[in-house]
Amino acid sequence: MVIKVYIATSSGSTSIKKQQQDVMGFLAANKIEFEECDIAANEVNRKWMRENIPEESRPATGNPLPPQIFNENKYCGNYEAFFDAREDNAVYAFLGLTAPPGSKEAEALAKKAQQ
Q1: Of the chain's two ends, which shows fewer C-beta atoms within 10 Å, N or C?
Q2: Localized where (predicted)?
Q3: Is the pLDDT of residue 113 over 90?
């Protein structure tokens, strides 16, 4: 299973650039393999991303903005959803991955199971 992060390499928005760096930096720091899919330079990526974001996750107006995160073809969420999962120590669950032993998320799950 490959985590795919849809980004725009030529975004003029500082906010979008920071969000993209935040997601990819976190994944790299936690040794979670991922693939960058550029929607600015690749029309196929842009079209695929827009077509595969569920209707309920789309903005009311306009197109969904990067970063958008998928596990293979399964939509995980946008930056806000990723940020919330990170705050809750639930990024692996958000990504549809098993938390590695010793991670905060694995420890929280073990603690929950004991209750």
Answers
A1: C
A2: Cell membrane; Cytoplasm, Cytosol
A3: no
